[in-house]
Amino acid sequence: MGIAELEAKMAKMENTIKDLSSRLTVTQDIQEIEKLQRIYGYLLDFQYHKDVVDLFSDDTESVEVAGRGIYLGKKGAERFFLTSQGAPREPWQMAHHMQLQGVVNVNLDGKTAFGRWHVLFMCVGGWGEPPKPTAAWGFGLYENTYVKENGKWLFKKLYFNRIFYTPFDQGWVKVPDMSRVRPPETADLPSTTHHPYPAGYVIPFHFNNPITGKAPKR
Q1: 96 lies in a domain?
Q2: 117 in a structural domain
Q3: Of 160, 78, 147, 87, whose CA–CA distance to 121 is shortest?
Q4: Total domains in the fold of the chain
Q5: What pLDDT does 72 receive?
Q6: Does any domain span residue 202?
Q7: What is the pLDDT of residues 39-60, one digit of tens each?
Q8: How confident is the model at residue 140 (pLDDT cuts 50, 70, 90)?
Q9: Which of 131, 218, 113, 114 is nearest to 179 (CA)?
Q10: Of 81, 94, 99, nearest to 36 (Cα)?
């Protein structure tokens, strides 16, 4: 084997190693983002709201959940999770969210990423006036942005569109949204989109069709 052929094989091996290393990094990043999202769900359900805030970047863009307004920056995330979402619960209140069918894509810069998740939840909330304990279930989607800082993935932007939130014995056709109207006393801006069933609203996809390379469309 001549020197030129040997050098060509060495260069090919180096490129293969670089490619495999890059693929490994992306795979590890996706795993860490999925872990971040799942841990967020557990902390949220069991009211570890201060720990939830720690999952957000100091450079957070915004938090927007259903029709509860837009909270800007890390300070906005603190107000939402510690004041609005973190308001004291009645002993009978309960919430359990299952985050499903996640699709995570890391950008080429390796520092930012997007994730989309279905959320099916079961809870006991207050419904009626005065509010009384009501078993309910709901469904919605997250379309989130993440950022990698100092080797750790954090939330950059959290957006959740709730499609229905209904008493379990009535269903979303009769009662698509049983949430009580809350004054946006702590939000920075009104919600951009909140379209419960039967609006048919679809959050724009952050990803393209993997076969055609084009944005999904109906």
Answers
A1: yes
A2: yes
A3: 160
A4: 1
A5: 97
A6: no
A7: 999 999 999 999 999 999 999 9
A8: very high
A9: 131
A10: 99
Parent domain of 123: 3-174
- Evaluate whether residue 204 is within a structural domain: no
Q: Could you tell me the CA-to-CA distances from 193 to 66, 68, 79, 136 in Å, in that order?
A: 8, 10, 20, 23
Residue 35 tokens read as 């872990």
Residue 7: C-alpha distances to residues 13, 14, 212 (Å): 10, 10, 38
| pLDDT at position 87 | 78
- Nearest CA to 80 out of 59, 60, 96, 100 is that of 60
| Lookup: tokens for 53 | 């805030």
Query: Which among 179, 103, 109, 110 has a CA at the least distance from the CA of 143?
Result: 103
CATH number of the CATH domain containing 79: 3.10.450.50
Mind listing the pLDDT tens digit for each residue in 53-97? 999 999 999 999 998 899 999 999 999 999 888 777 888 889 999
Q: How far is CA 66 from CA 2, 149, 187, 211, in A?
A: 67, 28, 12, 32
Q: Which residues contact 102 (CB under 8 A, 6 or more apart)?
A: 34, 37, 115, 116, 117
Amino acid at position 171, single letter = G
